[in-house]
Amino acid sequence: MKVPSDQDIALALRSRRVAIVLIAGALIFVLGEAIGAYYAVPGRWMGLFEIAMLAVMGWAIWETVTIWRLRRDKE
Asked: What keywords would UniProt list here (predicted)?
């Protein structure tokens, strides 16, 4: 069995970080929307959850493309 290199381990950790941030962002978004709807928070404040989730998604796409490029260049 082949032993993973340090770069393989680093890429796996970056991939795991992307997954954890996406899950956490989605949970915060859903809970924020639910709590905001329950307490009748104004729409402009609820928009902050949407902007935050958009930022999380943008970062995740950026990081995923970076991981893909690093793996592609490794081969």
From this structure: Membrane, Transmembrane, Transmembrane helix
Q: What residue segments make up the domains of the chain, in order of their start?
A: 12-74
Q: Are 52 and 25 in contact (CB under 8 A)?
A: yes
pTM of the model: 0.88
Can you give the pLDDT of all 75 residues of the chain as single tens digits?
A: 789 999 999 999 999 999 999 999 999 999 999 999 999 999 999 999 999 999 999 999 999 999 999 999 987
